[in-house]
Structures are given as structure tokens and as C-alpha cells.
Design brief:
CATH topology of the largest domain: Rossmann fold
CATH architecture of the largest domain: 3-Layer(aba) Sandwich
Strand order of the largest sheet: 3-4-2-1-6-8-9-10
Helix content: 40-55%
Distance between the termini: 10 Å
CATH superfamily of the largest domain: Glycogen Phosphorylase B
Structural class: alpha/beta
């Protein structure tokens, strides 16, 4: 079977991202198709030949200092260093380092490779006009699937790129990306790639319309979600004890949001809607504070200062803890201004928690009629959805049944079938 390379750009992040989940699921399903799967990381692993030291460094990477990144850029500007001055090397994870804490982050794969600072160098090289970096893999690779827009190509392989969305171009005021640089990068990917992959019909339309790519060069595979068995080990009664004892909320007596705290997620209107609804259930927000988080959480901060807040904000939860919070919630809410897919909504439906979601972007594709759709710009509409979930037990029961059926449309088996069709066309 053909050999497939998948990047570990987001997989290496300590707290993970939605794209890390995408990459991990991609590895699982591509492996399930029978392909040999290799994952390429770009960690600062010791340059020595001691295999044990390299294994240690993989699980304890050194963060690249900004000063080091600046040196890379200056060296590239002076022409004294190419983006890559080495071929990625294979890592042998012998098990001498206990990997258990990383079990949820390690993908299913046959081989792991690492190129020192590989992604930093590629981005730096592109930033100073050196174009795309070419990766010379020491093993045969038939297809390289890059899960994020990166200025990298695997030499001698078909190169495909997943563009999850074009939010920096569609809603430029909601991200901190350098829009000029981002547009340049995605345009070059569009012209160089053997194929573009995306995750919703909404994103596919944006890619075709904004980048001028012919429709036949873009494939929507959607995404899938599979909750690890280990995260589902607790019974409903045990989940109740965990959420009530650990978070001071009642079982099935709180609404839940999880994701980054940034303008695109529309947190401030969600909070306004929650407060206006008069809902007695608490609102739990799980997410790291990002750009403009203070402004998004202003109402929470002010209410907490008066000792009146019924809103709980957590910066991060491990996957198992988050699954318990989802299972214990009365409803999950995602009033995003725009999403390329909306994986959290799918996770909620799969776990039997009814969903409130936006009627914009890709969320209507994911939610269908299995959740309440609201105008994300209308705080009053969000308040109405909170009230419905608070008071209408029949509606909640109906949405739980519909949600599980809707989630089946995005099952791993369905996703694997779509991937198989795409890979067969390219290989």
C-alpha cells in the first residue's frame, strides 16, 4: 500500500488544538485504510546520535526562543542558511521513556520522523522570500498530507494541503494573522498543491471564490470524531460525582462552551444572552485566553468583582475531564461568528448533549436540525435559545436523539470512505 506522510505541526502542541484533533483522526483513518503512515515533527531534538537522548528530547522538547527564531530569519536573509540543512531523521520510540501522559496526543502511525526546527525554518524562509522548503525524506513517501497551510513540500511525493477555513480573509477583524502574508501563502499553496482538502461545503465555497481554484481541485472530506474509550470509562453516576465535586455545578444543570477565548468565538454575546435569559443553570466556559479575551470576558470579570457571577471560567481541561463536563452539561453552546467545521458541536452531539449553534459558516452543516440554530449577532436570539434549553425538557430529549443520529453522518467509517476516494484519485 502507498506510504502517506502527515505533519505533526499541531500534534506537538502541549494543549492541543482542533487541528491537532483533525491530524490525530486523520492518522487513525489513513492507517485504517491500510496505508503506511509516517508523521513528521519539527521539534528541537538534540543533534547527537544517542537514540535515548533523542527519545527523551521528543517527550521533553525545548521551546524555540524568539531570539533563536530571529537568528534563523537573519541567517536566511543573508543567504547563509537554507530553511533546512538536514534531512529529517527517524525516531525510534523504544518505550524507555514512559509515554503514558502523552498517550492521548500520540497519533497512530508506523514511523515518526523529526527535522530540527523544521516548521520554524520553513515559515522563516517563506517570510524572507525564499519560497517553499523541500523536505527530503529518508524513506519513500507517495503522498504528503499537510494538515495546515505550511510553505513545505515533500520531494518526490504528491502534496495535498488541508485548508480548514479562510477566516483571516473572510473575517479579518477576528484574527491576528498578517493578512498580506497569509493571502500570499494560501495563494501559493493553491497554485502549487496537487490537491486542496477542506472540511465543509462552506469552506469549499470560500476557497473556490476567494482563491480562484477550480472546483475539481478542491475536495470536502468533512471530519469525524471518535471519543477514546478511556475518556468514556465513567458511568453517568460517576460523572455526576466528578462534575458536582470538582466544579461546584449541578449535574445537567449548566450550559457549556469550550474553545479559545477570541473574537471569532463570540463569547461576549453568548454571555449577554445567558444573563438576559435569566437561566438558573450555571454557564461554564473552558478555554485559554487569547486575543481580546479581556474584552470578551468583561461581563464575567465585572460580575465576579461584585460576587454575583454564575459563570465559571476554566483555562484548560485535559481531554478526559472535558468529556466528563460535556456529558454532565444540560446543553453545549457555540455561537461562533464563523467556523470552518465546528468539531466541538459534533463532540457534544456524539456524547448526548443538545447543542445551540450559529446559523452562519459551516455549523448549520454539522448541526442540521439536531440543534437550535441562532443568529450569532443577536444576543436576544441567544437568550431565547438558553431559555428553551432551560425550560423545555421535551425539546432537550428530542435534540439528544436527533444529535446522536446526526453525529453518525460524520462517523469514522464515513470519513474513511471519503478519504479513500480522495487518495485513490491522487495515487
Amino acid at each position: 500500500m502507498p506510504s502517506v506522510l502527515i505533519d505533526g505541526y499541531n500534534l506537538a502542541m502541549a494543549k492541543g488544538t482542533g487541528i491537532a484533533t483533525y491530524a490525530r483522526n486523520l492518522c487513525t483513518e489513513v492507517s485504517g485504510l491500510g496505508h503506511e503512515v509516517s508523521v513528521l515533527y519539527g521539534e528541537r531534538i538534540a543533534e547527537g546520535d544517542d537514540p535515548l537522548l533523542r527519545e527523551i528530547a521528543f517527550f521533553d522538547p525545548v521551546e524555540l526562543p524568539k531570539s533563536k527564531f530571529g537568528k534563523v530569519i537573519r541567517a536566511l536573509k543573508n543567504g547563509s542558511r537554507s530553511p533546512f540543512d538536514l534531512t529529517p531523521r527517524e525516531l525510534d520510540l523504544s518505550g524507555k521513556v514512559v509515554p503514558h501522559p502523552f498517550a492521548g496526543r500520540l497519533p497512530i502511525c508506523d514511523r515518526i520522523f523529526n527535522g530540527e526546527d523544521l516548521f520554524h525554518r520553513a515559515n522563516a524562509g517563506f517570510a524572507v522570500g525564499r519560497g517553499f522548503s523541500k523536505v527530503h525524506m529518508p524513506a519513500n513517501i507517495d503522498l504528503a498530507h499537510w494538515t495546515y497551510p505550511l510553505p513545505i513540500e515533500a520531494k518526490g511525493a504528491a502534496n495535498i494541503y488541508t485548508m480548514h477555513d479562510l477566516v483571516p480573509l473572510r473575517l479579518p477583524y477576528t484574527t491576528l494573522d498578517n493578512k498580506r502574508a497569509y493571502l500570499k501563502l494560501v495563494k501559493q499553496i493553491a497554485s502549487r498543491a496537487d490537491h486542496i482538502v477542506t472540511v465543509s461545503e462552506c469552506s469549499k465555497r470560500d476557497i473556490i471564490d476567494l482563491l480562484g481554484i477550480p472546483e475539481e481541485r478542491v475536495t470536502n472530506t468533512y471530519q469525524s470524531v471518535a471519543i477514546p474509550d478511556d475518556a468514556l470509562k465513567f458511568s453517568d453516576e460517576e460523572v455526576q460525582r466528578i462534575v458536582e465535586g470538582g466544579f461546584d455545578v449541578g449535574y445537567k444543570d449548566y450550559s457549556l462552551f469550550w474553545g479559545s477565548i477570541e473574537p471569532k468565538k463570540n463569547i461576549h454575546r453568548m454571555i449577554e444572552g445567558y444573563l438576559a435569559s435569566g437561566a438558573e443553570a450555571s454557564l461554564v466556559i473552558v478555554g485559554a485566553r487569547a486575543w481580546k479575551s479581556e474584552e470578551e470576558l468583561r461581563l464575567v470579570t465585572e460580575a465576579a468583582g461584585r460576587g454575583k457571577s454564575r459563570i465559571i471560567q476554566l483555562s484548560y481541561c485535559p481531554q478526559g475531564t472535558l468529556v466528563n463536563l460535556i456529558r454532565g452539561a444540560k446543553a453545549a453552546i457555540f455561537p461562533s461568528l464563523y467556523e470552518g467545521f465546528g468539531l466541538p458541536a459534533l463532540e457534544a452531539m456524539l456524547l448526548g448533549t443538545p447543542v445551540i449553534g450559529s446559523n452562519t459558516g459551516s455549523l448549520p452543516e454539522v448541526i442540521g436540525d439536531a440543534g437550535l440554530q441562532v443568529d450569532p449577532y443577536d444576543s436576544k436570539a441567544i437568550a431565547g435559545a438558553f431559555s428553551q434549553m432551560e425550560t423545555d425538557d421535551g425539546l432537550r430529549a428530542e435534540l439528544i436523539v436527533k444529535g446522536k443520529a446526526q453525529a453518525e453522518l460524520f462517523s469514522p467509517a464515513a470519513y474513511r470512505k471519503r478519504l479513500d476516494a480522495l487518495y485513490r484519485k491522487l495515487l
